[in-house]
């Protein structure tokens, strides 16, 4: 059964507090981490052929498309009608890319997505467009995820629903967590999710 649009969704999308927090923290993080960003960029470039930054189309707030930024971690870059998920023994992952993916350092360029307003620090993680199409046919209310800006992290990730999506149950758990986040959003919850993300990243083996 389809669920109605969460009343609180408009607060998530237009909250000035959330946006100001995103701008301030993303701007500070970019300046503070600039030396690390440069070193990672050199490592990616020296390790394998291809661009330093990987760009892929994703759906954001209200389904508006944008290009998500990541440090390139694979030798093959996909952004078409078929995008293959990364797996634990994926031969496309480069040597440096494997380290970046396990530590989530490949996601650091998304600070620029946050600064631009395409993303927020906390929200539903955006999927490749081809995956959106598949998942929307598998999970009821999947489209409700687009009532908030996509996030660098989210409630689903803090709960351990990250990494490869192996079956319908995996994506259902993520979507239900995303909708729960939108329905019960508050700035305090955003802060708790960000703090929880640090713990998950340091102790999780699902990223590869």
Task: Describe the structure in brief.
The chain is 48% helix and 10% strand. The chain has 208 residues and is mainly alpha-helical.
Provide an overview of this structure.
- The protein is mainly alpha-helical.
- Helix content is about 50%, strand content about 10%.
- The protein has helices at about 10-15, 15-30, 35-45, 95-105, 110-115, 130-140, 155-160, 170-185, 185-205; strands spanning about 55-60, 65-70, 120, 150-155.
- The strands form two sheets. A two-stranded antiparallel sheet has the order 1-2.
- Strand 3, helix 6 (about 130-140) and strand 4 (about 150-155) form a beta-alpha-beta unit.
- The longest helix is centred in the N-terminal third of the chain and has 17 residues, at about 15-30.
| Rg estimate, integer Å | 16 Å
Number of strands: 4
**Sequence of strands across the biggest β-sheet:** 1-2
How much of the sequence lies in strands comes to 5-15%
Could you give the order of the helices and strands?
HHHEEHHEHEHHH
The gross shape turns out to be: globular
Largest sheet features: 2 strands, antiparallel
| Parts with pLDDT < 50 across at least 5 consecutive residues | none
**Whole-Å distance between the termini?**
35 Å
Discrete helix count:
9
Question: What's the average pLDDT?
Answer: 88
Membrane topology: Multi-pass membrane protein
Domain Bacterial sugar transferase: 18-202
Subcellular location: Membrane
Family: Belongs to the bacterial sugar transferase family.
């Amino acid at each position: 059964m389809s669920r109605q649009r969460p009343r609180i969704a408009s607060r998530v999308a237009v909250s000035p507090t959330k946006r100001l927090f995103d701008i301030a923290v993303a701007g500070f993080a970019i300046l503070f981490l600039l030396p690390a960003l440069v070193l990672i960029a050199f490592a990616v470039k020296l390790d394998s052929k291809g661009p330093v930054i990987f760009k892929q189309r994703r759906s954001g707030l209200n389904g508006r498309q944008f290009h998500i930024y990541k440090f390139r971690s694979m030798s093959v870059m996909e952004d078409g009608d078929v995008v293959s998920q990364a797996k634990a023994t994926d031969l496309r992952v480069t040597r440096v890319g494997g380290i970046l993916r396990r530590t989530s350092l490949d996601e650091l360029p998304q600070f620029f997505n946050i600064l631009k307003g395409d993303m927020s620090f906390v929200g539903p993680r955006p999927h490749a467009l081809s995956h959106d199409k598949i998942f929307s046919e598998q999970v009821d209310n999947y489209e409700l995820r687009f009532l908030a800006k996509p996030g660098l992290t989210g409630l689903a990730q803090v709960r351990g629903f990250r990494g490869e999506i192996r079956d319908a149950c995996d994506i259902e758990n993520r979507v239900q967590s995303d909708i729960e986040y939108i329905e019960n959003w508050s700035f305090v919850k955003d802060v708790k999710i960000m703090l929880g993300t640090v713990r998950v990243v340091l102790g999780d083996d699902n990223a590869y």
